[in-house]
Every structure is written in structure tokens, then in C-alpha cells.
Amino acid sequence: MPKRGEAGRASEDSFHRYPWYSPRFWHGMPFSVWFELARENGWRAMPSQWGMMASVTAISAFNSVAEPLSNARFGRLLRQKPLLPQPVFIIGHWRSGTTLLHELMMLDPLFSCPTTYQCFAPGHFLLTETVLTRLLSGVIPEKRPMDNVAAGWDRPQEDEFALMNLGAPSPYRRMAFPATASDRPCALDLRRLPDEEFARWKRKMESFLRMLAIRDPRRPVLKSPPHTARVGVLAEMFPQAKFLHIVRDPFVVFPSTVRLWKSLHAVQSFQREAEDATERYVFNAFDEMYAAFERDRPLVEPDRLHELQYEQLVADPVASLSAAYKALDLGDFSRVRQQLEDQARSMKRYQTNRYTLDAEKIEKVAARWKPFIDRYGYKVPDANEVCPA
Fold it and tell me: Is the dihedral of CA 51, 184, 155, 65 positive or negative?
């Protein structure tokens, strides 16, 4: 079970104080997946990252050995194909409150979720999790670099990292080599993939969920912003799955997402990306994500999709979650009400970053994201208005 806890204000310094061999997302890849990713980008890394490239290559070789050993150890259970779980999917754009919602849902003892280690080493966590999380407890920072959320091997994590490390097509591959990658997302809208890659993505998704079911049979709650563009595919794959869609003021989401990618690139990438490329990517990813979401929304029955706004969740998490439980028929809300009330009191102490947008960026966000702004009733701020994020 992931630990339950509060998050405090953090800075990127907590990541930078670790040596060059500290964990990166890419350390979870087997050699074949890592080699293909690096080859696609010509192995072009800044000289300061050559040591990290060597580290990832070496650890990928370990993963390539550990995965078949894990499969052999748990082969009988894997061959029996545990019943495919029907997850609750938390969806929404990056920086819209998906992590907060995930943490709150994990207060319910009837739900489970993938941990950071399970997403870091999806190919062999069944074999190595107990030992390696103890050995590596000192090399992971306590806070995420982009916000005030606690980090740790046993914390709830995005399954998108697991899919990427297993070799599924993923937009997160871009984080390794942002300067040589496209400024348009790859594998965000799965319906744009060639048939072979689409089938591979579905195989990896099902495989990871079955491994999670071996470790913990409870219903998983999966949080991944890219899944916002995949609701049609996921609704078809998992006929009893439910979807919690959280939205947030786009004039906060835009600068916060730009900061997110800059923070991640600072500590995860092998290259340096230009400022304007980051902003182009944020605009392009949002456009593709919500074009796909609105296209596929009619494919999801109304009683399987519930929407809430971040601002309402922060103002009254108990009422917001109570409405979600009722709309999605997630069971008796009373079992988690007290924990949520306690968490709501502690959330009043949280501090958020604050951003301002100049007139040019406000105009651009207002024009490109107008359908979203209109649908969810957000207003266009004045230039240089300070917004909490």
C-alpha cells in the first residue's frame, strides 16, 4: 500500500543534490527499449549527460536479465492470466489536479494503485520490489521538482511511465531527447498510431494491469493525463471501467504545464530544449488531447464518466468526492468520509505557486483553447493578473 501523507513546498534543488547516478525514468527500460529510444535520437546528448547515458545503458542490461527471471518466478500466475481489472481512470490535462485527486482516492482502502517503483521497474517489480526499494531508499528525493507533492518509491504514480518502460508507444519518450523530438505529441491519441503499434500498446497495458493484480487484487485507480485522449479505447478495453475527469482554469494550466516540462527536462533529459519549443509542445498536446477527448466522449456511457473542477475539489474535497462516488457508483462513501475530512483540514495549509501571463499569451490561450474555456465556464484574465497555480 502506498503511504498516505501530506505534501509540502519543494524546489528543484531536492533533485539536483543527488549524484549523476540518481534514478531517471529511463532506468526502468530493458536494453532493447532503451537502445531503440537512444538510436531514434542519434544518441545525441549533452556532454554533461554522457555519464547518465552510460548509467542508463548499464541498468537497462540489468533489467533485461531481471525481467525473464521475474517471468520465470511468476510464470504460472502470469500464464493463468489473472482477471483483467476494471480500473477507475483519473484523467485530465497535466497540472489540472490529477495527482491531488489520485492521492485523495487512495484514502479509500478498497482501491489500489501502481507505486513509483512498480512504474519504474514494471518488467520485474514482482521479483525485485521488496529488496530494491530498501536498497534504493536514499536515492529518491522527498518532493517532486515541479510542485508540492511528496515523492517516494511507494507513492502513487502514473501508469504511463510503466507503459513507456515496457516499450509501449508513449509521449513521455520525448522527455529524454526533447531537442531532437517533434514538438507534436506522439502516441497521445492512440487512434493515430499504425495498427501494429496500437496493438502493442494494448498488449502492454493489459500485461501491466495483470501484474498489478498479482501483487494487489483490489480495484486499481490509474492516473495518467495522456489517457484523457484515450477514453474511447479504454472504455472499449475495460467495459466496466469508470472515468474521473478533472479540469482546471486553462490560464493557470498553461504556465504551470510549461514549468512542469522545464522542471522535468532539467532533471530527466539528456538535451536542452529551446523555450519556444516547450510552449509549442504544450499548445499542441492540449489541442490533440481535447480534440480526441471530445471526439470519443459520446462512446462513454454517462454513468461511467464524471467531471469535476479543480477549484471545487480544493474548496470542498469531501463534497466533490461524495458526488463522484454517487455518479460513478463507487460504493459506500461513508467508509472514506472521515479520512477525507481530516485531509481537507490539512489541505488548508497548502501553498501553491503563482503565475502571471502577459497579454500576448493570454490572447493565444484564449484563442486556441476557446472551446474548453467556454465548455467549463472559465474567464479570460486581465494581462499580468496573478493566478494561483
Answer: negative
